[in-house]
Amino acid sequence: MNRVWTFIISKTLSQEEINLLTELGNKFVLGWTAHEQQLTASFDILDNKIIIVKVNENITEASGCSIDKLTRFIKDTEKQFSIELLNRLLVAYKTNNTIEIVHSSKIKELLSKGVINENTIVFNTAAGNETELTNWEQALKNTWLSKYLVKVKI
């Protein structure tokens, strides 16, 4: 089973920055270890908006120390690119086949303006394994953001 971590990129990066981030991420996973055992891992960036890190735990399991190494890499990346990656209040949603990033505090406003609706596809960045990742695109009404939907009294 592949273990998965996802990180929403808080702001738009230039193509040069995306290329550098991809290079740094690939370099990190190539040297990533758990108890001195090489992890079989990958680093991808979806639509220049979401980082996806995977580890094949059928070969070597990620340990607490290796997860700490990933967290350090992510924190260093935040500083280097002046971005937020660990802010779990960022929301990624699909619109016109692109991914938009907003703070969750803006969801109610976007709903009231009709920019998004209950069927807008939202990415579940809490996915922790590959099975969850294959189903991570969910209608807003099926996520924790459904609390922002206006309840109609009958």
Molecular structure report:
The protein is of the alpha+beta class. Helix content is 30%, strand content 27%. Strand 6 and strand 7 form a beta hairpin. The longest helix has 18 residues, at 64-81. The mean pLDDT is 93.
Keywords:
154 residues, alpha+beta, 3-stranded antiparallel sheet, two-stranded antiparallel ribbon
Layout of SSEs?
Elements: E1 2-8, H1 15-31, E2 33-34, E3 37-38, E4 41-46, E5 50-56, H2 64-81, E6 90-95, E7 98-103, H3 107-112, E8 121-123, H4 130-134, E9 137-139
Helix pairs in contact: 1-2
Describe this structure in a few short sentences.
The chain is of the alpha+beta class and 154 residues long. The protein is built from four helices and nine strands; from the N terminus they run E-H-E-E-E-E-H-E-E-H-E-H-E. The strands form four sheets. The protein has a three-stranded antiparallel sheet.
Question: How big a fraction of the residues is strand?
Answer: 25-35%
N-C termini distance? 46 Å
H-E order: EHEEEEHEEHEHE
How many strands, what sense, and barrel or not for the largest sheet? 3 strands, antiparallel
Oligomer: single chain
Count of DSSP H/I helices: 4
Shape: globular
What is the alpha-carbon Rg in Å? Answer: 17 Å
On the 0 to 100 scale, the average pLDDT is 93
Strand arrangement across the biggest beta sheet: 1-5-4
Class per helix and strand makeup:
alpha+beta
Unreliable residue stretches = none
Helix content: 25-40%
Total strands: the figure is 9
